[in-house]
Amino acid sequence: MLQIIYRARPIFTGIVLALARGEKLMKKMNNRDKVGLVAALVVAVIVILIMLVYGNNLQILNPKGTIASQQRDLLVFAALLSLVVVLPVFFMTGFIAYKYRASNKKARYTPEWDNSNKLEAIWWGVPILLITILSVVTYKTSHSLDPFRPIENAKNETKTIQVVALQYKWLFIYPDENIATVNYLNIPEDTPVKFEITSDAPMNSFWVPQLGGQIYAMSGMSTELNLMAEEPGTYEGYSANISGAGFSDMNFQVISTNRADYETWVNGIKHVPKSLDLDSYNELARPGTSDRENYSSVDGDLYANVVGKYMSNKGESPHKSHEGTERY
């Protein structure tokens, strides 16, 4: 929303200049025509804003998951609340530019005026009220949208997927099914998914805009993100943290299907003639981009080893890098 308002700034500036320079035209118009002109300008601004919104195809405003829907509502609420300040500012900018133009001899000139208790109360009181409202909402949503908080649903079922950020690819491990994929994942609709996320590369960020907010992936740490897709579809996932030359290609897809199609997909992956053991993982983890990959079986301790290899009693542990040299 802020990006849209910023992009529309030249439009508002043009309207203000048009009002300020259109003095001769305004003098020839009666009050009815002036009201009609203002109404037309307001409608034009609204239409332009709508075009900017839908023309950008903003994924965060088109949620397909329960968490993303709540986050979209929070963004819209905050944006609408900010309009309490933004709209009067734009209105007063145009009003002041027109009323106090140099040729308007009817405008009252008060060079000694320097204070108004009423105005002071307004421009201090309104922001304080807005900040108070946002503080309460932020406190509540910080708990209700906590990424570690499990999603409750009628099925009382949660799917666990382990995520490893590599250079420059994503590895997804399904511990329950003992399979793995690269650069895409399949999930059943209306089923909460608990993502356990780490990194075996520079710090990264896991983000699926239509399902929920991003969370960082860091080596030696395992964090969580709980999401749920409410309908079938294919949703784009991104790396939201610049991590090197291949960052722009570090995208993935989340495919949400019904339960039957999901089980069929799992059974198909189990027949792939590739397994993910330590040797094949080290090959996969070499820096570079990758196409989609499937693995019919996974070393059960792989995720724990990826996290643990950066740890020791002192908090650091030397281990072999992908080039075969020691690093600390």
Give a structural overview.
With 328 residues, the chain is of the alpha+beta class. The protein has 2 domains: 2-100 and 124-143, no CATH class; 159-320, Cupredoxins -  blue copper proteins (Immunoglobulin-like). Helix content is 42%, strand content 21%. It contains 9 helices and 15 strands. It has a 6-stranded mixed sheet with strand order 8-5-1-2-3-12. A hairpin with a 2-residue loop joins strand 1 and strand 2. Helix 5 (66-99) packs antiparallel against helix 6 (117-144).
Reconstruct the topology from this structure.
Elements: H1 2-7, H2 9-21, H3 23-28, H4 31-56, H5 66-99, H6 117-144, E1 159-166, E2 169-174, E3 179-182, E4 184-188, E5 193-199, E6 204-208, E7 212-217, E8 223-227, E9 233-239, E10 252-257, H7 259-269, E11 275-276, H8 278-284, E12 293-295, E13 297-298, H9 302-308, E14 319-320, E15 326-327
Parallel strand pairs: 1-5, 4-10, 11-13
Antiparallel strand pairs: 1-2, 2-3, 3-12, 5-8, 6-7, 6-9, 9-10, 14-15
Which key phrases capture this entry?
six-stranded mixed sheet; five-stranded mixed sheet; Immunoglobulin-like; alpha+beta; 328 residues; single chain; disordered C terminus
The proportion of residues in beta strands is 15-25%
The general outline is elongated
Structural class: alpha+beta
Query: Poorly predicted ranges (pLDDT <50, ≥5 residues)?
Result: 313-328
Taking all Cα atoms into account, the compactness measure Rg is 28 Å
User: What is the class of the largest domain in the CATH system?
Assistant: Mainly Beta
N-end to C-end Cα span: 44 Å
**What is the N-to-C order of secondary-structure elements (H for helix, E for strand)?**
HHHHHHEEEEEEEEEEHEHEEHEE
Count of discrete domains: 2
Strand order of the largest sheet: 8-5-1-2-3-12
